[in-house]
Amino acid sequence: xxxxxxxxxxxxxxxxxxxxxxxxxxxxxxxxxxxxxxxxxxxxxxxxxxxxxxxxxxxxxxxxxxxxxxxxxxxxxxxxxxxxxxxxxxxxxxxxxxxxxxxxxxxxxxxxxxxxxxxxxxxxxxxxxxxxxxxxxxxxxxxxxxxxxxxxxxxxxxxxxxxxxxxxxxxxxxxxxxxxxxxxxxxxxxxxxxxxxxxxxxxxxxxxxxxxxxxxxxxxxxxxxxxxxxxxxxxxxxxxxxxxxxxxxxxxxxxxxxxxxxxxxxxxxxxxxxxxxxxxxxxxxxxxxxxxxxxxxxxxxxxxxxxxxxxxxxxxxxxxxxxxxxxxxxxxxxxxxxxxxxxxxxxxxxxxxxxxxxxxxxxxxxxxxxxxxxxxxxxxxxxxxxxxxxxxxxxxxxxxxxxxxxxxxxxxxxxxxxxxxxxxxxxxxxxxxxxxxxxx
Amino acid sequence: xxxxxxxxxxxxxxxxxxxxxxxxxxxxxxxxxxxxxxxxxxxxxxxxxxxxxxxxxxxxxxxxxxxxxxxxxxxxxxxxxxxxxxxxxxxxxxxxxxxxxxxxxxxxxxxxxxxxxxxxxxxxxxxxxxxxxxxxxxxxxxxxxxxxxxxxxxxxxxxxxxxxxxxxxxxxxxxxxxxxxxxxxxxxxxxxxxxxxxxxxxxxxxxxxxxxxxxxxxxxxxxxxxxxxxxxxxxxxxxxxxxxxxxxxxxxxxxxxxxxxxxxxxxxxxxxxxxxxxxxxxxxxxxxxxxxxxxxxxxxxxxxxxxxxxxxxxxxxxxxxxxxxxxxxxxxxxxxxxxxxxxxxxxxxxxxxxxxxxxxxxxxxxxxxxxxxxxxxxxxxxxxxxxxxxxxxxxxxxxxxxxxxxxxxxxxxxxxxxxxxxxxxxxxxxxxxxxxxxxxxxxxxxxxxxxxxxxxxxxxxxxxxxxxxxxxxxxxxxxxxxxxxxxxxxxxxxxxxxxxxxxxxxxxxxxxxxxxxxxxxxxxxxxxxxxxxxxxxxxxxxxxxxxxxxxxxxxxxxxxxxxxxxxxxxxxxxxxxxxxxxxxxxxxxxxxxxxxxxxxxxxxxxxxxxxxxxxxxxxxxxxxxxxxxxxxxxxxxxxxxxxxxxxxxxxxxxxxxxxxxxxxxxxxxxxxxxxxxxxxxxxxxxxxxxxxxxxxxxxxxxxxxxxxxxxxxxxxxxxxxxxxxxxxxxxxxxxxxxxxxxxxxxxxxxxxxxxxxxxxxxxxxxxxxxxxxxxxxxxxxxxxxxxxxxxxxxxxxxxxxxxxxxxxxxxxxxxxxxxxxxxxxxxxxxxxxxxxxxxxxxxxxxxxxxxxxxxxxxxxxxxxxxxxxxxxxxxxxxxxxxxxxxxxxxxxxxxxxxxxxxxxxxxxxxxxxxxxxxxxxxxxxxxxxxxxxxxxxxxxxxxxxxxxxxxxxxxxxxxxxxxxxxxxxxxxxxxxxxxxxxxxxxxxxxxxxxxxxxxxxxxxxxxxxxxxxxxxxxxxxxxxxxxxxxxxxxxxxxxxxxxxxxxxxxxxxxxxxxxxxxxxxxxxxxxxxxxxxxxxxxxxxxxxxxxxxxxxxxxxxxxxxxxxxxxxxxxxxxxxxxx
Lengths: 440, 1123
What we know:
By secondary structure, chain A is of the alpha/beta class.
């Protein structure tokens, strides 16, 4: 029996005595559960809110899948996608037709769970092959209670989403079609739910407490606001900082008083950035960080929240960017990075009209600036010119819409973490981290 | 970075003749580059020696030279043209080596030409194994332990250092890994390494640690001058390391790497291309150990390659076009992605929602004696690609595209151990497990069929993995194919086609089974062959059943983005979904209308499939011209083909491209989808014309589904009249055309009787063949018995026996007929006597030794045949002149392989004119350019002997050449010399000549030998020939025949480097047969030119005489062409 590897990024780092240990979603397959032969839960049907229907075969957990239908175009990294909390509330379609060629591996998950509310594919592979493989995608979904539907014409489905925009859907046994049609009629957008609350951490924990650099000097402490943070962000941060993994609503005062942080990071996450729930709390903390001129970095939802904090608006994209091949241009250097992306909302640059209706605003009105700071667009998508990154003018703060931590996807943008590390270093100006000043 | 305005004139080098390791992919990349640069306002100068390419059509470049690709020639053209820049990355290894030579010797600097795309340092660092390894070490990329060696002693030291066999031998600077191999012991090491040193342009081989059994992966990378990098496509070989990637079955994108594995290799590929500072496209190969996650960098091609052509077709991303634009300064983000239009830029990585499988096309069906083992050097002549939504579908579609005669994997039997036409009686003998295991263990062209067979026999994945080291994921896929296969066989036991349910049909079709495959499986794979089924289920039955269930394929666009963006590229493949709407998936494009408001016709052109012996790039040229002719007059041109290397499968060649097998089934479905009005079958070689009759037979059924199709041009009946021996004989008699006496036989006794009646020597061959397969000249009963024991005879496949016209001059005529009038493109005279396959002959435009009177008769007969057979479109006739009498040998009612040569020699675009006539134009209404006069143009064949061991390197009635070159000059000898130089074999101007000819040729050898002697060559000859020469007063040194086992014999002299030319006319009997074979084999390996006909010898001497004056001045094609 192989023992669970879990998630413990601080393990083995110099100065760390009691590294934090969390759960890797694949741990549920260790030891391999004895699942029944999963092939074929029978005929299924996928119903879209516009009335179209797609037949297929059910697999994974025996449940009805419901959510907002989106698609991702990545050809590898399905496990990372399934465990990416940003997919909460959604039914995820894989355009790559052979789902799970290399199976599920321990230590590859991006969180402790599987977040899409359902999975749609053309074919799932019952005989995956890889040295690290501990199970099939079917077993993985089953273990996490997530339903799937296969043998679907995903190409036609993707075209549907492209033409219509993201769309609500239900899928399940074909016998339940009538019932699902009714449920679909009354179904509301998951954007209205506090999805960040669903996926984020409830308590604060130092994951590599005591970490020191090569010279034995304590590393700066960073608060990672978890709006649905991916493990590889925590890994990347913990290689450079002492990381406080904390809830999105921890509050800036607590971070300063109780935790004495040196820098602030806001993670990716699901749903509408303008939601009044926990995303709003994170936004307020970011604004406070900016006002304090603290080094701040945001990724994905964190980027949108930083935009909102500085008075920019956000809007919902027609069908989002989800995949591993999105080209992003750095407007300062002119260079292009191929990036990993997973987002349905975007920041509207200053002076432009919102491009799509915003479900939350209708009830709450547009947001107002929480911070005095102004931003400049630094990165744009080379295809559709949407905002991909912001620099906060005159502050040690920036954000990107895409995923420099990759997993899945290319590593082109990885230097951004070093860039942030340098910013923090410069702000420390050679002094000991704020968090350690009391000690010395 | 913006476009470079400091350069205006760019020279592009082509890759020369089609040969093993360098096929049509460089016509494709070179054409893309020419078009991209010209449409951006640059003046393009092109040099290529191959007349058959689209690339050197007069409208492709501003200035075109069809000249030998030799440093001296290129230098001279550079001096004449003085271009600003040289783009060498589009012409394969040939162009890269030329550029490298001219850069190193200072010519480029002296003339003031900048090498663009890839700089000299990059080329050297990527190509010189030692430098390359140092580069990898410098940036911490793992490489195999290896030593670069320049001598055998160094090789042995290296072997000692590494300390274990097997060792891999890789020569530096060669194409297709020529001269490399895996050595299991010291003896093999010495043998392979000495070949490698010889063939390497810099005399260097690399001795490497073996990574046999590891996976092989390729990354196609693009980089621009601003250091933006993307991966266009990843590819994974099914065959583990040890088989050249050009010889491997390849899947795109890679299937078995996790995201972590893939990103690790992606990072490595990007680091490497950045360090090498490559601007444009390149290809990085990795070995990957699936058990440990270790990898090794294998090599980098700092240029576009066969793999990049495949990647372009697999993703839709036009690598060569982008590489050319990058070379002139553009950055990727400035360039739109032409697939999706304005929506996306070229700076993104294509993502696929389908699986692509490439299978190489090997020539072993023609070369039965050649060694079929696959290794680190290439043997395949071309490849096919197929696209499907599952691996199985893509694999079986690719298989169906191969055209070996079996469109799907059938159970293997002892018949498969012989490559005879049929071996009918052995078909019922099961292939023993031991042989099957051997076929799995040793990589040959049979391996994929053996995989299928192993799982049919219920072998476990573990067992097959143990034998083959193939990644388990693939084996599971094969296992599943066998399961589905068995399911169909079972269903066949329970009922016929009518018993197939909709669910079964959808499941089988989405697993990639063709109608023919289903029919064959349901019939239980009868040993009589897949076509012949007594009381079984036929392909037609299955299709009819499928159509009655309303099950048709759906067509999906290759859009580089998995449908994320709406694409504008009409590039499609067919697939069967398990769940999708019933009925025909009609093409969504509205009909085009002409300016006059007339509805455009939808015309389908059939391509020619994979490049193979007998069906080369010429037929892609034909298909592209047909498409262009259709588009010119405002109709819609729809192209179907399965060859990823070609211009025809470039997505903007036609109005719509279908990347699908060229089978009756897939062509029929496309016709239905398109609601096509017409189909052109004359331009895709034998592949296309072979569809004429079967398609004709299906028209009634298809019209029931609403298709109103016309077979454009020559009617199927006329095609049959021209191709069917007996019908044509009857026609010839009526038209008063003389033919060699010929008879057919459908049984061995009939054949013997026919031969008896005609009398020896006879030319014997099977009917309806491609490239003369199985054709032989027989001189006695013993040979006849031997031939019959291997030949396949059946009532529907008779053998033809012809009177053999000895010492005849052979003529080829390419012409177009509109039913009323005939346009003769050119009459070509073969240098070799009749009996050598016309595809292998050297030929001249205009004829050099034929009287006006006979030429007049040729024209007259050509007209009579064209009009008499009611040919509408193109045709080709072979004539022979024997003792001043003209004979018709053969009529091909289709475009021939000499069409492009004729067009480039005469300035008459024959294929284009033929296409216009085929779709209804009259010759009298077409503007036909004036014929170029005053020039002699020579076409010479290029042979694959160096790559294929076990094949007798002498031309004969079976075609053996892979490609051709052209030379032109006002002087015939200089024209011939150019063509000879372009074949890339040296033309000696001093040294020794070895002469050994059969008795009948001895007298005519004397004047030839005399000239050689006068030019100060030392002559060597065996006793008989020497005596004849001495009697003729020619000084000669006598040497032993090889069979005499005395030194010095010819082989010794050749090895000592004393022989620079061999003149040997092969005898058909006696010890001289083996002698000649060994000598020619050695000549091939030592790169010594040899001549096997007397007429060839005469011309060779003329060429040598001309060569003493130096290389003839290059000639600009358009001077004569575009007046």
